[in-house]
Amino acid sequence: MSLSIESAQKIFSGTQVPSPIPATIALFDQLNVDDKLALLWFAYTELGRSITPAAPGAARLQLAEGLLNQIKQMSNDDQTQLMRDLAGYVDTPISRSYASFSVNTKLAFWFELGELMKKGIVAPIPPGYQMSDGVKFVLEAIQKLDPGQQITVLRNTVVNMGFEPEVNSSGYSKAAKEPMFPRTQPAPTKLTVEGITEPAVLSYFEALNADNFDAAIALFTPDGAVQPPFQKPIIGRESIIAYMRAEAQGLNIMPEQGISEALPDGSKQLKITGKVQTPWFGVQVGMNIAWRFLLNPEGKIFFVAIDMLASPQELLNLRPTK
Ligand code: ECH
Questions:
Q1: Is the CB of 240 under 6 A from ligand 1?
Q2: pTM, full prediction
């Protein structure tokens, strides 16, 4: 029997709990564009009272530098219009160039705009702005989430902004050369995960913790796939490695426990839960994560889905499927 991505996506689906993140983003999407920008401003500054992102390094800001310099020269009205166009997915040359940035460059771009807004160089949220009921409602929804979920909402709204002429379905076509995130402390490399002994899976975690994406990709079948949270699977070694080089750097991966089940054709399915830290927030935020792996009979990774858990209780939700 050959493995299919479609059936792989369904492994352990009976143990999954619906995440509040897509529901929160759907609420956000219903706001008008000025409310969207105001909501993000309040959510971000509110978050900043307990946790703050690390300032992006010069190398990453350089990728957005041209755009940022252009913005600094603009009138306040034009700056506001530009932010509206980005948040409203309007087709403009700037929205297109924004959409071509990698996730981390998009985040760095907004980080810098936020700093420029605080300094008064970029148009702030209008003084005296009154939150609409819609903004209050979405802000309350965000406040109910845990910090890992809050930063995911912020990240996903930023990722969706701009205008992408054609959507690439299974590949990965963003910036090939991304600056690395400096690691402030070495990530854990030798791991023990309760209940898990499969070498490919343990080596996968160790390779990511060492930013060794060549080693990680060697553990996959040529037609293997990675399905990041709330995304379609990224299929094939070339796409996966491009994706990982851009988006999986500097992560601290801390899997804690898992279950492994052998299937009749010799393949294996595994579900592992644990924490992940992003280099943007470091030890300040531990995201609750599950990995659902499907290994082929030779022990290579055919599929891994990364899921954001709905709650910390879910870390212990490791019921066998049979
Ligand atoms: C201001 C107002 C106007 C509008 C905007 C503003 C600025 C907002 C800013 C927001 C910054 C947000 C940030 C969020 C960062 C979030 C990072 C996350 C990372 C999650 C990573 C995971 C990785 C999982 C993976 C694993 C694997 O095994 C394989 C690979 C991979 C205020 C100006 C917009 C500045 C910095 C959530 C879960 C574990 C899938 C990668």
A1: no
A2: 0.96
